[in-house]
Write a structure and sequence with these properties.
Length: 167
C-alpha cells in the first residue's frame, strides 16, 4: 500500500473542502484544549471555605462537650463502671488544662486498674459508649502471671472535653 504524500493530501482536500474544514476544526479544538485543560470542580471545592460547614462542625463539637458542673459526675461514673466490671482501681490523678483557642477545657484522669483482660476490655468499651465527651489518650498494659493465674494491670489516661454547649 502506498503512503500518503503532501501532494495526495492537497488533492484530496481540494476535491472535498468539507473534509478539510472538519480536520482543521478538530486540530484547532485540540490545540485549545491542550493549552487550557479544564479545571475540575473538586479542586475548586477544596480551595473554597464554606462557612456553613464550619459553623455546623463547631456546633457538633460543642454539642459533645459536657458542662463543668457535670464533670465530677462523669468522672465518678467512670470509677463506678470500673467497679461494675470487677476491676481494682489504684490511686487516681486528676488534672485540667484550658484550651484557649478552642474555648474549652480538657480534664484528665490517670486511672490505674487491674483485673482480667476481658474485664478491662469490656470496661473500656462501656466507658467510651457511656461518655461521648471522653477519650482515651493513652493506654498501657502489663501482664502479670502469679500462681497459674494471669492478671493484667492497665493505666488509662482518660480525657474529658469540658465547656459550655452552644445554645
Amino acid at each position: 500500500m502506498k503512503s500518503l504524500t503532501w501532494l495526495d493530501l492537497r488533492l484530496m482536500f481540494g476535491r472535498q473542502p468539507a473534509l478539510a474544514a472538519l480536520l482543521g476544526i478538530i486540530v484547532a479544538l485540540s490545540g485549545v484544549l491542550l493549552a487550557h485543560p479544564p479545571q475540575t470542580q473538586e479542586a475548586n471545592l477544596s480551595l473554597a471555605v464554606d462557612p456553613v460547614r464550619i459553623i455546623a462542625a463547631q456546633r457538633s463539637f460543642r454539642g459533645t462537650l459536657i458542662a463543668p458542673a457535670a464533670l465530677a459526675g462523669a468522672q465518678q461514673a467512670v470509677l463506678e463502671l470500673a467497679a461494675t466490671y470487677r476491676l481494682t482501681v489504684g490511686p487516681v490523678d486528676y488534672a485540667q488544662e484550658v484550651d484557649s483557642a478552642g474555648n474549652f477545657k480538657t480534664a484528665s484522669m490517670r486511672l490505674p486498674v487491674s483485673g482480667s483482660y476481658a474485664d478491662i476490655r469490656h470496661f473500656v468499651d462501656a466507658a467510651l459508649s457511656a461518655q461521648p465527651a471522653m477519650s482515651i489518650r493513652h493506654l498501657s498494659l502489663q501482664r502479670e502471671a502469679t500462681d497459674g493465674t494471669v492478671a493484667l494491670s492497665a493505666t488509662l489516661s482518660v480525657q474529658f472535653l469540658v465547656g459550655e454547649a452552644i445554645r
